[in-house]
Amino acid sequence: MDDTDLDRAHAAMMAAPENDAARVAFYDCFADAQIVLLLAEEAAAETVRPAVVELGGDRYTVVFDTEERLAAFSGAVAPYAGLSGRGLAEMLAGQKIGIALNPEVAPSTMLIPAEAVDWLAQTLAHAPTEATARPVEILPPGALPEALTGALTRKLRGAGALASSAFLAGVRYADGSRGHLLAFIDAAPDAQPGLAIAANEALTFSGLEAGAMDVTFVESGSTMATRLARVGLDVALPRPAVPEGPAAPGRDPDRPPKLT
Q1: pLDDT in tens, 11-45
Q2: Whole-angstrom Cα distance, residue 205 to residue 29?
Q3: pLDDT digit string (tens) for 190-202?
Q4: Where residue 58 sits, what CATH number does that domain have?
Q5: Residue 69 contacts by C-beta under 8 Å, 6 or more apart in sequence?
Q6: pTM of the entire structure?
Q7: How many structural domains comprise the chain?
Q8: Are residues 164 and 58 in the same domain?
């Protein structure tokens, strides 16, 4: 089987065990991954009962990052639910249940303890705060940490369906403060909260201990949009692939399965 994004993130983490940024990047990748959760029985409506194994006195759900790996592990047809890594972390938070990832079937085989699952769920729950600072000058962004630009690329994968474009620039506010500004152009109103959360997570998972990035939404043709296009960094917003066929239980991020 070909290596997956999780395999590569896991390899980078294992190659540098003291590198906090590599470890955070792995959990970021896991949160965004679409995974399959082995079930103890067929799902009923939106309720699922995961298969849980006990190892060393601790309990773990069993998950895979591809259906092929689930099939290789089970050796037969097995019930499963599809969901995102963030959805699984949210579902397991506080349950004292860890995650057995790709057991025996991939280079990214590992046990994620319950404490790490809780940390991931708590980190993902951090929402951006609203502010009303008035920009008075849009500037070139200057040198940006690769960790931040890489995190933005990961987080905004598929965002091309939600906004026409995005630019990252430097900004000076009326009170004299400076920072960075990520501006989405022509974003649909109902997509704006999700885009703001994605940008906030990019900063959180970039591994930068100190840093700030504001998010705004701008209409094309405005003076700010013109200035952003002139001096800002164009952030790619790829369009998502259109899935074929019916979705497995849990694939809808707005309707995660319920744990039983």
Answers
A1: 999 999 888 888 888 998 999 899 999 999 887 76
A2: 9
A3: 999 989 988 888 8
A4: 3.40.1350
A5: 1, 102, 105, 106
A6: 0.72
A7: 2
A8: no
